[in-house]
Amino acid sequence: MKPAAFEYARPKDWSDALQLVADGARPGTGTQSLGPLLNLRLAQPETIADLRHLPDYAGVTVAGDVLRIGAGTTHAAIEDGIVPGRVGAIMAAVARRIAYRPVRNRGTIGGSLAHADPAADWVAVLPALGGTAIALGPKGERRIPLAGFVLGIFETALAEGELLRAVEVPVLPESARWGHWKFCRKVGEFSKATACLLRVEDAAPRAVLAALDGPPLVIEDARALVADPTGEAARVVGEVEGLTPWRSAVAQAALRHAVEAAT
Ligand SMILES: Cc1cc2nc3c(=O)[nH]c(=O)nc-3n(C[C@H](O)[C@H](O)[C@H](O)COP(=O)(O)OP(=O)(O)OC[C@H]3O[C@@H](n4cnc5c(N)ncnc54)[C@H](O)[C@@H]3O)c2cc1C
C-alpha cells in the first residue's frame, strides 16, 4: 500500500518544530518505523515534520562524566564508533545487531525510543546504562530517566507536544563489565527476549529484562541475580504475567546468559 497524501515540512529550528507538532504535525526522523505505519495507513497525519535537519539533532558531545547523544543519531553512526569510550564500545556492539545496515543507516536512537516497540534494542539497553531522555516541549527541556520512559507498547512518558531531543548516558570506566543477550529467530528480526547486565566496581549491578510485550523490567540492584542466576531468573520471570512456557524459558535464558557474559 501507499501512504495517504500528506504535507512535508522541514523545520529550520526547534521552536519551528515544536510549533509544527503543536499544530498537529507528526514528527519523523529515520522513518524506518513511521514509514510502515504510513504505508499501512495506521497513521494518516496531514503533515510530517522532518526533524533530521535540526541543529544538534545528531551527534555526540561529552560534558564531564556525561555523554549526550542527539536523538537523531543513526544506529549506523553508533555502530561506526561515534560514541567514545567504554559506553561507545557497548553501544556499537548493540547497534551492529539492530536489523540490517540499510535500516541502521536511517533509523535513529531517538526514533527508536519514541516509537517504543518493547522489543527494540535501545529500549532494553539504555535503562541498563542508566540513561536519561531529554525531552523538549513548549516549556523547555525535561529530563526523564530511561528506566521509566517506555510505559507500554508504543507508549512513552513524552507529554503531548514534546519531542525527544537527546539521550544522556553516564561515562563508564574501562573496567565496567557488560552482558547482553537477545534471542532472535533469525538475523535482523526483533528480539523475543532481551537481557542486559551492567557491573561497575563499588556499585550494585543493574539488570534489564525486555522484549516481553511490555515496558522493560529494570532491576536496579541485581546482586541476587549475580549470586544465583538460575534461581533468581526463574523468580523474576515468574512474576511477569502472561508468558507462554516457551517465552518464559527464553526470558530466563536471556538473564542467565547476560550474567554469564558480564562475569
Ligand atoms: C526491517 C526492520 C527491522 C528492524 N529491526 C529492528 C531491530 O532488530 N531492533 C530494533 O531496535 N529496531 C529495529 N527496527 C526499527 C528501527 O530501529 C527504527 O530505526 C526505529 O524503530 C525508529 O527510528 P526512526 O529514526 O526510523 O524513527 P521514525 O520511524 O521516523 O519514527 C518512529 C516514531 O517515533 C516518532 N518520532 C520520531 N522522532 C521523534 C522525536 N524526536 N520525538 C518524538 N517522537 C519522534 C514518530 O512520530 C514515530 O511515531 C527495524 C526496522 C525495520 C524496518
Tell me what the structure shows.
The protein contains ten helices and 14 strands. It has three domains: 44 residues, Uridine Diphospho-n-acetylenolpyruvylglucosamine Reductase, domain 2 (2-Layer Sandwich), CATH 3.30.43.10; 111 residues, 2-Layer Sandwich (Uridine Diphospho-n-acetylenolpyruvylglucosamine Reductase, domain 3); 85 residues, CO dehydrogenase flavoprotein, C-terminal domain (Enolase-like, domain 1), CATH 3.30.390. It is globular, with a radius of gyration of 18 Å. It has 263 residues and is α+β, with helices and mostly antiparallel strands. The chain has a five-stranded antiparallel β-sheet with strand order 4-5-10-6-7, with helices on one face. A four-stranded antiparallel β-sheet has the order 11-12-13-14, sandwiched between helices. Strands 1-3-2 form a three-stranded parallel β-sheet, covered by helices on one side. The mean pLDDT is 96. The structure holds flavin-adenine dinucleotide.
Please write out the topology.
Layout: E1 7-9, H1 14-22, E2 26-28, H2 34-39, E3 47-50, E4 60-63, E5 66-70, H3 75-79, H4 85-95, H5 101-106, H6 109-115, H7 121-128, E6 132-137, E7 140-145, E8 150-152, E9 155-156, E10 163-170, E11 177-183, E12 193-199, E13 206-210, E14 217-219, H8 223-227, H9 229-238, H10 245-261
Helix pairs in contact: 9-10
The protein binds flavin-adenine dinucleotide.
Flavin-adenine dinucleotide (FAD) binds at residues 26-34, 51, 71, 98-99, 103, 106-108, 110-112, 114-115, 120-121, 158, 163-164, 188, 190.
